[in-house]
Amino acid sequence: MYPIVDHEVLAPRVHRLRVQAPVVAEKAKPGQFVILIIDEKGERVPFTISDWDRDAGTVDFVFIEVGKTTRQLAALQPGDELLSFIGPLGRPAEVDHYGHVVTVLSGYGIAATVPIIRALKEQGNTVTTIVQAPDRERLFGQKPLEELSDQLILALGTRGDGMMESTTVAVRKLLDAHPRKRIDRVVAMCSLCLMRVLSEMTRPLGIKTMVHLTPVMVDGTGMCGACRLSVGGTNRFACVHGPEFDGHEVDGWEVLMARRCTYADESILQQGFQCR
Ligand code: FES
């Protein structure tokens, strides 16, 4: 069993859980994920690791309450236990010295990208971070991003269809200044539709754009095929070949979006959450 050692509410419906899982903490790397099961009746659900402490043997992940399992997780308190907590899974995010990296984050990605940004800074990169949130009330996790990023841009507000126009405007401004203010790489962990739009914005400029894709997953080991997607004309499994992919090579955006929406129930949509 895997005890919960801390539970913090970061914003309305946004939670951070800290789990005692020494084996996962020992091996975790930026961009990897875990698959957990709450109890005998629980489903297997993937969550991107947002932090870890190897000495304490703990692993953090951030989630938004949108469905049955996340509502159950939101009710857990320190002392409660998870039946299963498997990981770290997936390939770590690519990290090297690139120069100037722009990261674009929203939702759980605001927290889950922190280890990637930390690693990028350790490699001597300059990092500009754009954080997207519907409003200030639902903005969280600013402090570590402020400390790590050379520039932090807040893109608040929504157009009403889940696509945050302020984010694309902020990215457009940065791209317009390129190559005078050169951008060497973009890393995005935000909504599927925004990652798709970002990839199209950077493609003509030849700026490598890494997107973090989390389709529906079951086993997390490349056996079930649930997380398959098409990248560069080849079938790939997000759980073993990703979850980070070159956004310019992803050619199955429509399929990805449709499959994500398949499992969005009415209650999720009524809460104003986008399945994309
Ligand atoms: Fe089964 Fe990836 S989750 S193949």
UniProtKB/TrEMBL annotation:
Cofactor comment text: Binds 1 [2Fe-2S] cluster per subunit.
InterPro entries: Cyt_c3_hydrogenase_gsu, Dihydroorotate_DH_Fe-S-bd, FAD-bd_FR_type, FNR_nucleotide-bd, PyrK_electron_transfer, Riboflavin_synthase-like_b-brl
Keyword hit for Ubl conjugation: no
Cofactor(s) needed: [2Fe-2S] cluster
MF GO annotations: 2 iron, 2 sulfur cluster binding; flavin adenine dinucleotide binding; metal ion binding; oxidoreductase activity
Residues reported in the UniProt entry to bind [2Fe-2S] cluster: 224, 227, 239
SUPFAM superfamilies per the UniProt record, alphabetical: Ferredoxin reductase-like, C-terminal NADP-linked domain, Riboflavin synthase domain-like
Any Pfam family matching the protein: DHODB_Fe-S_bind
Limits of the FAD-binding FR-type domain: 1-95
GO biological process: pyrimidine nucleotide biosynthetic process
Highest taxon of the lineage: Bacteria
CDD domains: DHOD_e_trans_like1
Keyword annotations of the record: 2Fe-2S, Iron, Iron-sulfur, Metal-binding
NCBIfam families per the UniProt record, alphabetical: PRK06222.1 (NF004862)
Protein name, UniProt field: Ferredoxin--NADP+ reductase
